[in-house]
Each structure stands twice: as structure tokens, then as C-alpha cells.
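Deliverable D5.2: sample structural annotation.
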Amino acid sequence: MNLAELTWPDVAALSKDTPIIFPIAALEQHGRHMPFFTDSMLMGEIAKRAESTLGARALFAPLQWLGNSHHHMDFPGTLSAEPRVYLDLLCGLLENFIAHGFKRLLLLNGHGGNDVPGKQAVFEVRQRHRERNDLLLLFCTYWNLDAEAHKAHAGLRQKQMGHACEWETSMVLRLAPHLVKNHTGVPPQEFGNAFEPGSRGWTMRDRSEHGHIGDPREASAEKGEALFQTFTRGAVSLIERMIAWDGKSWNG
């Protein structure tokens, strides 16, 4: 179900155990060859496919396209919410539907920069409602839903998601090839090892002159479709686990 297409009586009539899905993404630079709306386009497509599969078993809110993208601000055109403002926005989305009586809520993410505020949001909201044991508050980034996503297509070279990389470029080639500009002429950019397993503060300029990470030259629409199918299955599987949750236990 699509929240944007319903009336308030429609929502009021739903079971309060219906999973509520908030797709979140970003509008930020994606190198010299990819559009600003890449993350939102890809997250929107996965959400649309998951909604189609699940039907009336889950309710999808409209995509939230503004994200936490300060690390891309050196590249003109990027839009970014202040980190604390963005965190409060995510908390507010969850609180809205808790106020409406719903108990199973998921922030389904399509942008790496949203990872920290998204996890913090579900943590903070849970603490505000610590007396309740019937709330299921989740955050997940779609490309982490399948540990073997790199096997989605035999031709995939990358083992993980980058930025405007083989994976993202392939998916945009599948959706809107006219928005991809000369990806075969872009130089590869290594992921590097930023003092792992430590977590280093960084800006995109620290890592990439061109604004991408990975090798876009390897992209194809066929790989993109395979990735879409893999990531959609992962999202549907997680939401089905939300549906099956017994409403009180830690495990799911």
C-alpha cells in the first residue's frame, strides 16, 4: 500500500501491526557521470517493487529524498540537511506513526550517509518509549540485506557498494540510461583502507577527485536489473519478518 494514495479512514482501518516503511535517501553529487538523484531513484525503485510484492501487508510512506550529505558539499549542487536536523526529522517520522497507534516501523535506507543518524533515530525513539515492549523500530540500508549481493550477476566485479560505482551505475542504466554520461570513460577509484576497523571522519574529496568510488566502467543495465531483484528480495524478506514478529520477543 502507498500512503500517498490513501485517505485517513483507510489508515485508521488498518491493523496496528501493519509494518510502516519509510524509504529514505538523498540528493547529492554522484561523480561526473551520474545524476544527483541517484540514491533516491534507486531506493524509490526498490520500495516500489517491494510494495508491489507485499500488497496490503505493508504500508509505504513517500520517499524522503533529503538526506545527510555534508561529506559531499565540496561538489556543487549537493543538498544536505544539518545532521541534527536530519536526525530529528527521522525521529519525527517514527513518532508520527507511533502517535497513530502503529508498532512496527522501518527506516529503509538508500544512502550511506544516513547510516549513523538512522541508527541513532531508532535508538533514541526506543528510549523515549522504554516502558513499551510492543514496539519494533528498525533501520536498514538496502544493500546490506544480502551478504552475497555481489553474486547477483556473474559479471559483477565489485564485492561491495561504492558510490556512483559499478553497482549504482548499473542500476541507473537499467532505470534511466539517458541520465548516465560516459561512464566507460571515467577512471576507477579504489575503495582504500581508512584505518579499518576504525571509523575515520572523511569528506568525499579525501577519497576521490571525481566524486565516485569504485569502477563505473564495468556497469551494465543487465547487472542493474539483477541487483534490483536481489535488493528487492532482501527488503521483502525483512518486512515479512516484521509481519511474522510475535509482538514482544527480542528475536525476529
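Annotation notes: The first helix runs from residue 8 to 12. Residues 3-149+230-244 form a domain with the Rossmann fold fold (CATH 3.40.50.10310).
The annotation will be released with the project's public dataset once the embargo ends.
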